[in-house]
Amino acid sequence: MSAIYLRGQAVPRDVADAIAERAGRLRGFAARLVYFETVGSTNDVAERLAADGADHGTVVVAEAQEQGRGRMGRDWFSPPGAGLYVSVVLRPEPLVDAGHAVASFDPGSVMAAASLTLTAGVALAEALRFATGLAVDLKWPNDVVVDRRKLCGILAEASVSSGRLQHVVVGYGINLRPAAYPPDLGGRATSLEAELGRPVDAGQVLAESLACLAERLRELPAGGFPRILERWTQLSPSSRGAAVEVLEAGAWIPARTHGVDADGALLVQTAAGARRVIAGEVRWL
Ligand code: BTN
Question: Is residue 204 part of a domain?
Answer without folding.
Answer: yes
